[in-house]
Amino acid sequence: MTATAPAPAPGTTTDERLLRTSPLRRLLGRPELGSVVGAIAVFLFFAIVADSFLRAASLATVLYAASTLGIMAVPVALLMIGGEFDLSAGVLVTSSALTSSMFSYQMTANVWVGVGVSLLVTLAIGAFNGFMLTRTKLPSFIITLGTFLMLTGANLGLTTAISGTVGTKSISDMEGFASAHAVFASVITIGGVDYKITILWWIGLIAIASWILLRTRAGNWIFAVGGNKDVARAVGVPVDRTKIGLYMGVGFAAWVSGQHLLFSFDVVQSGEGVGKELIYIVAAVIGGCLITGGYGSAVGSAIGALIFGMTDKGIVYAEWNADWFKFFLGAMLLLATLLNAWVRKRAEAIK
User: What pLDDT digit, counting tens, does each position of 322-334 carry?
Assistant: First the structure.
């Protein structure tokens, strides 16, 4: 039986923040509830149909697949909570890797110089998206679609002009490659099982993003601008700076993902990354983010990425045709959207 606050005396009011709320009501108010239910269902499903799914090495592979998506899904989720999209996020990862590789190779510099230049470039592209959005007042769909097309063309055009091919040259023998590989693409062995370092990057980004959303003034600003930017501006929220910062966050994550891509495979193909931006958005939506903004969590996006990883690798372990992957992903998107809408209505009903 749930305890309730005593009724207020006649003529007085009670601050709703002082009312006790049952654990069930608090649970229903969590944006990631739907994704947790979905993740449990997907895990149990593949644990039953795929004999090798529960092996430690298999779960490490699932976590790796989830982390490569989740690193980008976290800032994309924050951007969606802020009410915006970024359709250039996928090719920005490739741009990050290409910048590091070609700058290091052409300048015969330590690869860390290329890594630093890549960070500046990706942050600048993120700031450009945010600046154009706030100055032109055009929808983020249009702004980032334009950036997507420009980056797609620039990736191919510049790589072909500089390298003579659609791919970059090998930089594995250059100074600094070993240390950069250790930071962005190394393997950590625990209990005889190999885990990619991207899992640690992913966990770190989740923790930082959750702290920002739930413990800082900037987190309040993100929810405010996503809920109603005009009202947020009226009460003193720096709407433009918040949106620019969110796009720069996407740029930072693209830099991390791009360096992992480069130092894992040594060379990069200029046409990679196209279509990945939709997967990042799907992971955020499955994790509880609303398309309309103002609602969601970083943890939810991580669970959405985990569902992606389990489905991607679970189909392989079950020895099914991999062509069915996008079918399952689309089905999960629809089911998650419906479940998230129900959770949202329940959360609003108990306030």
Answer: 777 778 777 877 7
